[in-house]
Amino acid sequence: MNLRTLFPIAAALALSSCATAPSSTRPPAASLYEKGMVSAADPRAAEAGAEMLRQGGSATDAAIATMIALTVVEPQSSGIGGGGLYVTTNARGTVETIDGREKAPAAAHPHWFYKDGKLLKFQEAVPGGTSVGVPGNIALAARAHSAHGRLPWAALFAPAIKLARDGFVITPRLYGMLKSNARTAGFTAEGRAMFFGADGQPLPVGTLVRNPALAASLESFATQGAKAFYSGANARDIVGKVTLAPVNPAPMTEADLAAYAAKDRAPVCGTYRGYRVCSMGPPSSGATTLIATLIQLERFDLKALGKDNPVAWHLIAESQRLAYADRARYAADADFVPVPVAGMIDRKYLAARSALIDPGKSITKAVAGTPPGGETLSFATSEQLAEYGTSHFSVVDRAGNAVSYTSTIESPFGSGIIAGGYYLNNELTDFDMNPELDGRQVANRVEGGKRPRSSMTPTLVFGPDGRLKLVIGAAGGVTIPAQVIRGVIGVIDWDLSVQDALALPVIFAPGTEIVFVEQGSSLEAMIPALKALGHAEVQPRALPLKANAIELRGSQAWGGADPRSEGKAVSE
Questions:
Q1: Up-side HSE of residue 339: CA atoms within 13 Å toward CB?
Q2: Helix locations, 227-305, DSSP H
Q3: Among 13, 99, 363, 463, which residue has the fewest nearby CB atoms (within 10 Å)?
Q4: What is the pLDDT of residue 242?
Q5: CATH 1.10.246.130 domain range(s) in the chain
Q6: Which residues of 203-238 are buried (b: 16+ CB within 10 A; e: fewer)?
Q7: Is residue 518 within 8 Å of residue 532, measured between CB atoms?
């Protein structure tokens, strides 16, 4: 076990107890914006967050309430059975980040996903206990609330408890996920009883679903604090479900839950055309991939090229390929392996990488570079493209505080295991399941107490005047950085509204020779032009796109939600 895993127990329990204390005695801050706003992937969750703002809550209060409500109404994607990454700022532009990423049990080891000496296939590894990491969202919420909350902790749970107890209707998106992921959604008797009929088919759109078990769990966390999640009956339930899973049982212990702590991390920031861009560092690859892609593009006049020019999208794809190659080579949990973060976004290094990009011809093979600090590292490169159980939400309050928060349970319905009425994640499949490649260790290999590499990219963008301009993030596995890149370029380079920027198509070039373009979008018509520019293989793909953002203009907040989703921006 890494020594860092020995220390968080007391801190986590102390944090849990203080999270129940009201913080409403803090004096109200002066208004910077006319109204606060929440943009989330489900209108009911966005409304839960907006309700906190109307009660005088902070952006952090609203973000936590949104996350908890998503546990109820978007069980396929996010919630307290998983983890998250939180980026926040205040009216002064101070940026803080909290890492609530799930952790592998102490017993985990590099060959965790081997059975009878053979590496499991991804779909074999997902269901059951082996894929479950210790959830981090409640610990993250408690830490964030202690620092930036204004309302009492229990108030943040009220909307979600009401939704779970009184019921919520199945939406077309949830129905579609139940139908396409029936094996995982119905992995347990609880899941089948909640979401499937006697005929084994998903309950139809519009069906009212109640989740009394989840309501009871949320009530206990609301009244007893985060300690009720990481110890006692809830911890025993999680451990029992994981260790006795009918498929892939795994040795998780109550000590694994008690030892969990969310961690303050240093934000990773860079500049793009005079804008300051801040996001999440390791174990996330989000900041380095986003910032590297943008800086490599800075020497090209994307504004003049415009959004309808294949050359513009070619340049974006080429820059992504280089950044994603570095991501796969170096990004991992920095508590366990050295990650050359500063080198990966170093402007001199990225100028050399950008010089590889030719507006008229594609790079034959995009390979990882050697950023400053990466010279002595000998990790191999490995990549997996699956992960769709994620949700992002952006929040701004009147006082000028903002939160960009991405929450995940990894795949749709996570591991399929339900504890306390909520799905447990399958986050450990975000590790590279094969610990070696070409005789070298992979940086993102499984280790006890380690957090798997993430693609989540909760981001804040500040204008040249220092004022907050954009709060943005996305869901959709390794496409997340590409989605955020598209949104930032849409607002900064192409002068689009945040809603129009999120409606832009997505090009996804994950460091391989294959470039994916969003199926049915204007990019599909550009495939011949992209191939003429030297891209050997361009494939249309129904990409898992789901982004949410808020743009600040003067004293007003303008919301954006991906038109491909059921998302919505709700004003207080």
A1: 27
A2: 227-230, 232-243, 254-258, 286-297, 302-305
A3: 463
A4: 98
A5: 265-374+454-571
A6: beeeeebebebbbebbbbbbebbbbbbbbeebbebb
A7: no
Taking the C-alpha atoms of residue 471 and residue 475, their distance in angstroms, rounded to an integer, is: 14
SS (H, E, C) 480-539: HHHHHHHHHHHHHCCCCCHHHHHHCCCEECCCCCEEEEECCCCCHHHHHHHHHCCCCEEE
Task: Decide which of 1.10.246.130, 1.10.1660.10, 3.40.50.1000, 3.40.50.1100 is the CATH code for 265-374+454-571.
Answer: 1.10.246.130
> Are 327 and 511 a contacting pair, CB within 8 Å?
yes
d(CA 154, CA 126): 33
Q: 403 phi and psi, to 5 degrees?
A: -135, 130
How, if at all, do strands 459-462 and 537-541 pair? unpaired
Which residues lie below 8 Å from residue 7, measured CB to CB, with a gap of 6+? none
* pLDDT value at residue 440: 86
Tokens of 480: 């997340």
Burial 117-130 (b: 16+ CB within 10 A, else e): eeebebeebbbbbb
Query: How many CB atoms sit inside 10 A of residue 247's CB?
Result: 16
Alpha-carbon separation of residue 160 from 69, 90, 128 (angstroms): 4, 26, 26
Binned at pLDDT 50, 70 and 90, residue 31 comes out as confident
- Whether residue 151 contacts residue 55, with contact meaning beta carbons closer than 8 Å, is answered with yes
- Phi-psi group of 129: left, alpha or beta (phi > 0 → left; psi -120 to 50 → alpha; rest → beta): alpha
Listed in sequence order, the DSSP H helices in 356-474 are: none
User: Which active-site residues does the annotation give?
Assistant: 390
